[in-house]
Input
Amino acid sequence: MTESKRILLVEDYEDLYFVYQQYLGTNHHYEFATSAPRAIALISAGRFDHILCDYHLAGKTNGREVYEWVAENRPDLLEHVFVFVCAALDKVDDLAGAKVIPKGDFRAMQLLVSPSEHSKM
Output
C-alpha cells in the first residue's frame, strides 16, 4: 500500500473524478475543482502533493490561469507537484516548463503519484 497523498484534481467533467480515483488509488485524499478560481482558492488555502489540472475547463476560465497563478504565487509547486492533463497537447506548447500528461494516460498518472509502487509492474 502506498503512502496517502493529497491530490487536487482540476477537471470540469465531474464524472472523471471517479475514474481518476480508481486509477490513482482510493487511499489518497482528493480535493476537486471544476474552475480556475476554485482551484486557486484551494491551492492558496492548502498543501497538495500533486495537482492534476485539465487545460480546458468549462466557462471562461482554463488551466492556464491556474498555472500562471501557481507560477507567480507558488513556484515551488511547478517542478514536482503541478501537471497538466490535456487532450490537445499543442495547446500547452507556450507554457515553458509545464509538465504535461496526455488525458487518458492513467499509467503516467499512476507513476507520478506512486512511482515506487508502479515501477515494480
